[in-house]
């Protein structure tokens, strides 16, 4: 009997020790785990209908998230502004968005970090008019559709300003981007401010004309990845893993362009030809270029804090935001990118214009 009690006691001790060691191991940084160990947490990444955001379908399809030990669920939002609201309310952990749409949340005190540059729009955003509208000044008194409070609204105001016009000079029609293109094609509105792939679809209307493009404003519309304050505080290794997965996708895109386009087209539910055309308006960034855009100070649109401040000043002047951020540098954190750079270097990204 005494021998039996000793055996039971020994077994209980082993179980307790095993539980203790396992518990300690789970609290360690994920950098101490193997590449095959996937995080138990599922992070939701909000995306919407924009070419550079579709690049996330590559690491998803090619299982690069799993390779880097992070569990990511892509959450698609048909209406772009819904994705922004979902991030601001904590319903998604990460979001791909245009920099102008990161300003209001920052001013309102929502905690986040900008950790990755996805692209600069280089023709992926544009203002298109129907037959007979040949210039921006021709839009006076005409109906123009786009989504209120988004980057396209900002882009429209910039376009109008080049012709010394304001929103008051046109009949502004508030429609989501996904609804603006069909409305334009149906003839419900005279013009529309759109991003790809909606922009290319709108230009299929006979006699339509591209009046203004983001090619006219290089660097004005950067698209980035934001992570929530909670994720930044609690899961820095997972953020690094997400960024590594993204650049694994870029490497795959360079080496296997046809399959990468197919991965994106499948996720976007458009044809591969449409996907290739849509991507031609996005200038993608290497690891080093991402870091330089955040850290290399310059009074030009190559420097993200400068760009963000100029956009904020413009948005404030047209009363779309109540104030300008105190220091736009605080909105960006290149720490994760620098760690990625140390491990993988900075390789070329696809030239989407080819």
Can I get a quick summary?
One of its GO terms (cellular component) is membrane. With 354 residues, the protein is α/β, with parallel strands linked by helices.
Can you put this structure into words, describing what you see?
- With 354 residues, this protein is an alpha/beta fold.
- The protein folds into two domains: 38-121 and 220-344, D-Maltodextrin-Binding Protein, domain 2 (3-Layer(aba) Sandwich), CATH 3.40.190.10; 125-216, 3-Layer(aba) Sandwich (D-Maltodextrin-Binding Protein, domain 2), CATH 3.40.190.
- 45% of the residues lie in helices and 18% in strands.
- The chain has 16 helices and eleven strands.
- The chain has helices spanning 2-26, 51-54, 57-61, 64-67, 80-88, 100-107, 151-162, 177-185, 198-202, 229-234, 236-255, 257-268, 272-279, 287-295, 304-317, 335-344, and strands spanning 42-48, 71-77, 94-98, 112-121, 125-129, 143-146, 171-174, 191-195, 209-213, 222-228, 282-284.
- The strands form two sheets. A six-stranded mixed β-sheet has the order 2-1-3-10-4-11, sandwiched between helices. A five-stranded mixed β-sheet has the order 7-6-8-5-9, sandwiched between helices.
- Strand 6, helix 7 and strand 7 (171-174) form a beta-alpha-beta unit.
- Helix 11 (236-255) packs across helix 12 (257-268), helix 11 (236-255) packs across helix 16 and helix 12 (257-268) packs across helix 13.
- Residues 1-36 have low confidence and may be disordered.
- Belongs to the bacterial solute-binding protein SsuA/TauA family.
- Residues 53-260 form the SsuA/THI5-like domain.
- It is found in: Periplasm.
- One of its GO terms (molecular function) is ATPase-coupled transmembrane transporter activity.
- Pfam families: NMT1.
